[in-house]
Design a protein that fits this description.
This protein is of the alpha/beta class. It has a domain of about 130 residues: Rossmann fold, CATH 3.40.50. It contains five helices and six strands; from the N terminus they run ααββαβααβββ. α2 packs across α3. The longest helix has 15 residues. Regulator of peptidoglycan synthesis that is essential for the function of penicillin-binding protein 1B (PBP1b). Pfam families: LpoB. One of its GO terms (cellular component) is periplasmic side of cell outer membrane.
């Protein structure tokens, strides 16, 4: 056993076993490291996304108001009469917001207070009674006059937008219901 003890001591001496305790060292300082933000993946190469077409808005009020003013000054127009306003029809080569045009027409006539307008609810009920769709835009003048007679209106205002959708033209006709005579007509470019 002595033999083994000598080998162990020799091994300790050779490995440099310290005979005295190590000198104290300063504690290591650890600085925090900011984590890197994950990089955004590059979009895959390919076609560029096309820009959507620019929506051009039409200024229905600016287009309709001067025509309504002109119509109210026409000969043969009796103030206070009952007027059936037919919805504005789209006869262009594209799509236009016709409900906005009809709304602007109603607003212009309501604020002028020259006519008593057939209420939209009464017009819808009359269309249903006559077997027409509520959304029927009365594509013909004779249909508009027939409906105006049914609701006891003295005048009917027939309006349509025609031409190229990029530069539409507004046409309006005020007709006497009893005879079908066109009392006034006017047209003009729809303003943007």
């Amino acid at each position: 056993m002595k033999k083994y003890l000598g080998v162990i001591l020799a091994a300790l001496v050779l490995t440099g076993c310290p005979s005295h305790p190590p000198e104290p060292t300063e504690p290591a300082t650890i600085e925090p490291v900011e984590p890197e933000a994950p990089s955004q993946p590059a979009p895959p190469p390919g076609e560029a996304v096309p820009q959507p077409p620019k929506i051009q808005t039409l200024n229905w009020e600016a287009s309709i108001n001067p025509m309504v003013t002109q119509m109210l000054k026409a000969d043969g127009v009796t103030p206070g009469s009952i007027l059936l306003v037919d919805s504005v029809k789209n006869n262009t080569n594209g799509s236009l917001p016709m409900s906005k045009a009809t709304g602007a027409l109603y607003n212009a006539l309501s604020s002028a207070k020259a006519f008593t307008l057939v209420p939209r609810e009464q017009l819808a009920a009359a269309k249903q009674t006559l077997g027409l769709s509520v959304d029927d835009s009365l594509g013909s003048r004779s249909k508009a006059i027939g409906l105006a007679r049914y609701v006891s209106a003295q005048y009917v205002l027939y309006s349509d937008v025609s031409g190229d959708v990029k530069s539409p033209q507004l046409d309006m006709q005020l007709m006497l219901v009893q005879t079908g005579e066109i009392v006034w007509s006017g047209n003009g470019a729809v303003q943007r």
